[in-house]
Amino acid sequence: MSIAEIRTQTEDKMNKTIESLKTDLQKVRTGRAHTGILDHVQVDYYGSPVPISQVANLSLADSRTITVQPWEKNMVNAVEKAIRESDLGLNPASMGETIRVPMPPLTEERRRELTKFIKGEGEHAKVAIRNLRRDANDAFKKLVKDKEISEDDERRAQEDIQKLTDRFVAEIDKVLQVKEAEIMTV
C-alpha cells in the first residue's frame, strides 16, 4: 500500500465519521417536529422488529406534530406502543387510523442536557478521527520498516495526515456549534 492509498483511505473513513455524527445528531430532538426523529423506532410486525417507516407513512401535520398512518388498521396499537416505549419521551395519541405525535416544548434544563449529550457525541467522533490518524501513522511506520519509503517521506505523510485530522476536528466543532445553536433557540 502506498502513502497516497493510505491517505485516501483515511480521508474516506474520516468523512464517514462526520456523516455518522450528523446522522446521530439528527435524532436529537430540538422541539421542532421532523420525521427523522422516529427513524430508529422499531415496531413489532408479526413477531419481528421492523423500522416504523416500513409499516407506516410518516408526515408532518405542523411544526410541532408528526402524523403516523399505519398501512394496516390492526397495526395502530403496535405502532403507538413502539413510539411510547422508545427512548424519545414522546406521548402519541391515536385518532382512529392515524396517530398524532406532538413534540413537547423543551425546558431550559432539558436543553442543557441535550447540549451536554451532543458535546459527548462530538468527543466520540473526535476520538474516532484521532484513532484513524494513529492507524495511518502506524501504516507509515510499517512502510518505513519494510524499507518501502524513506523516513522523510514518512514525516511528510504524517504531517499531511495531521492537517487532515485538524480539518476534520474543526468540521466536527462546526457541526456541534450549529446543533447547539439549534437546541438553545427557544
From TrEMBL:
<dbReference type="Pfam" id="PF01765">
    <property type="entry name" value="RRF"/>
</dbReference>
<comment type="similarity">
    <text>Belongs to the RRF family.</text>
</comment>
<keyword id="KW-0963">Cytoplasm</keyword>
<dbReference type="InterPro" id="IPR023584">
    <property type="entry name" value="Ribosome_recyc_fac_dom"/>
</dbReference>
<keyword id="KW-0648">Protein biosynthesis</keyword>
<dbReference type="InterPro" id="IPR036191">
    <property type="entry name" value="RRF_sf"/>
</dbReference>
<protein>
    <recommendedName>
        <fullName>Ribosome-recycling factor</fullName>
    </recommendedName>
</protein>
<dbReference type="InterPro" id="IPR002661">
    <property type="entry name" value="Ribosome_recyc_fac"/>
</dbReference>
<comment type="function">
    <text>Responsible for the release of ribosomes from messenger RNA at the termination of protein biosynthesis. May increase the efficiency of translation by recycling ribosomes from one round of translation to another.</text>
</comment>
<feature type="domain" description="Ribosome recycling factor">
    <location>
        <begin position="21"/>
        <end position="184"/>
    </location>
</feature>
